[in-house]
Amino acid sequence: MDILQKERKIRELEAKIDELDNVELINKLREEIINYKNEAMTNLSAWDRVLLARHQSRPRASEYIDYIFDDFIEFHGDRLFSDDKAIIGGIGILNGLSVTIVAQEKGTTLESNMERNFAMPHPEGYRKALRLMKQAEKFRRPIITFIDTPGAFPGLAAEERGQGEAIARNLLEMSSFTVPVIAIVIGEGGSGGALALGVANTVLMMENSIYSILSPEGYATILWKDSSRAAEAATVMKLTSYDLEEIKIIDRIIPEPIGGAHFNKEETFMNAKEVIVEELINLIKFDASDLREHRIDKYRQFGFFQRFNYDNLGGVKR
Amino acid sequence: MNDLANTLSNRKNSKIKNKQIKNNYQSNQTIDVPKGLYEQCPNCKETVNVKNTITNNFVCKHCGEHFKVRAVDRITLTIDENTFLEKGLGYITLNPLFQDGYEEKVEAYKEKTNIDEAYIYGYGEIGGNPCVIGVMDSYFLMGSMGSVVGEKVTRSFEYAMYKKLPIIIFTASGGARMQEGIFSLMQMAKTSAAVLRHSEMGLLYVSVLTHPTTGGVTASFASLGDITLAEPNALIGFAGPRVIEQTINQKLPEGFQRSEFLLEKGFVDKVVERKDLKKVLSKILYMHRRYS
């Protein structure tokens, strides 16, 4: 039984509560729900977390922004082509400190999903993000990015306008910033499309979000020629927050309420805000150049390989 | 995979010889054509002489199709003889996701291609101009970028910084290596940061895009050259054509994501034929020479 079926069962129980008017019975049922949650919805499998990360009612970036920041002002457009609605950006105030916020936004209703292209940005989206982040660098504002995308959009127009170049440029420029950069994966962190906003001093992940090189379905298709083994792929891919923290790709996990962020959005946002503020206080202590070196060094270390060092032989002539 | 490509790739003994490639293959000793001397060109369907194709820079004499070139051959084609010094040896690819059969696969490719990963780099001279050259090999697991390739690309930039030399990278890759999962993804950020540091020293980076350059490599160091060259009719893009067709549910136009298309859209400085490549690179290097 996967997490969505469990959730449905809970919803059924909750619906039953609404029908009842006997206080004792209601309390009993409530207790039952809590027990069931504690029992069945902890120790989730990787696939459960994939399902939660993609959950239709999972809190979106705009909701996080509304809760966490005061006076968020959204800015539009990349000044080159158009405004990509898959990415929102602007400035806001976090505990009295002005910060630049860039986020991938999926939208909450089907209509807004379509309008936002399910948070799959085009090149202009990444260029807008870069424009705003460069402004942050100019005005010495910390940058906070929210990552929630299945990936960069693989379409005709996106290719024409240089999707690859846009992502590459973001990776390069984000490495060069001398202000603190914090990235938070709140839902799906899909491949290069996610990394293009994810080169940060501190990378955080919501407990039930995922971050991977491609979708588990894609992984199963490419490597096993069988997309139905996605659940198995999710297990081996190391895409959950716990796996990634263990291999030190991310720095810290932000806890979610039992059953996923959508069960108690307020609690989720509160947890997120607390951790963001803590990490930001950590980072603003550092010098500008230290922040930059720290970020570059951090990504310099990523890799999993072995080496026999032949360098002291001065190279090999073939 | 077509037969000609196989024939071209399966030649044994194509280690870099310090002789001109022409002599190499005319001496009749290093030629190994397992499938006969003649093959059909996959592009124009004409029958081509394999030996002549090789001496013709791996270009079809009939239609000018540029075949894929192995990394070692690319170095022979580009670098002055006797000047190449390979660096960054001794890397061992590991299996971070414990993918079944991945190590064996890598071993098999090592055997087949004679190089230890999908990327080699070293010092070399082009027309007497010193530079660091890096070449990806698309015959090695599609030239995909895993931890070792990412590390070696980064190292090649660092080596160029240490020697204060310009760097030329020939890209040919299907993107990030799926078998290594998130580690491969992180190589994109790592290599991009390497480009940044090299660039900040005022050094030149020429990126030469060859067939095929897609995915995570396009979205990192391949697109970040000071000068971006491309070989004719090379497939260059972020998403693969099949993925795009599935997304938009229609056939892609002819020539989409090819070098000439990118030139028209403004993402490539110049499309250069393979026979002119060495000359153009040598001119570019000469114009960027340093006096100190």
Describe the model.
The complex is a heterodimer of chains A (318) and B (292). Chain A is built from 14 helices and 9 strands. Chain A has 318 residues and is α/β, with parallel strands linked by helices. Chain A folds into 2 domains: 3-43; 49-300, 2-enoyl-CoA Hydratase, Chain A, domain 1 (Alpha-Beta Complex), CATH 3.90.226.10. Chain B folds into 2 domains: 1-67, no CATH class; 68-287, 2-enoyl-CoA Hydratase, Chain A, domain 1 (Alpha-Beta Complex). Chain B has helices at residues 3-10, 21-26, 50-55, 71-78, 102-113, 147-163, 182-200, 215-218, 241-248, 259-265, 274-287; strands at residues 38-40, 47-49, 85-87, 91-93, 119-126, 129-136, 167-173, 205-213, 227-230, 270-271. The longest helix of chain B is centred in the middle third of the chain and has 19 residues, at 182-200. Chain B is globular. Chains A and B meet through helix 7, helix 8, helix 9, helix 10 and helix 14 of A and strand 3, strand 4, helix 6, helix 7 and helix 8 of B.
Beta-strand segment tally of chain A: 9
In CATH, what is the homologous superfamily of the largest domain in chain A?
2-enoyl-CoA Hydratase, Chain A, domain 1
Q: How many helical elements of chain A?
A: 14
| Top-tier CATH class of the largest domain in chain B | Alpha Beta
**What is the N-to-C order of secondary-structure elements of chain B (H for helix, E for strand)?**
HHEEHHEEHEEHEHEHEHHEH
Please give the domain count of chain B: 2
CATH fourth-tier homologous superfamily of the largest domain in chain B:
2-enoyl-CoA Hydratase, Chain A, domain 1
Outline the low-pLDDT stretches of chain A: none
Classified by CATH, the class of the largest domain in chain A is Alpha Beta
The proportion of residues forming helix of chain A, as a percent range, comes to 40-55%
Element order, helices and strands of chain A?
HHHHEEEHHEHHEHEEHHHEHHE
Please tally the β strands of chain B and state the result.
10
Radius of gyration of chain B: 18 Å
Quaternary state of this entry equals heterodimer
The DSSP helix count of chain B reads 11
Report the major sheet of chain B: 7 strands, mixed
Detail the poorly predicted runs of chain B. Answer: 13-34
Helix content of chain B: 25-40%
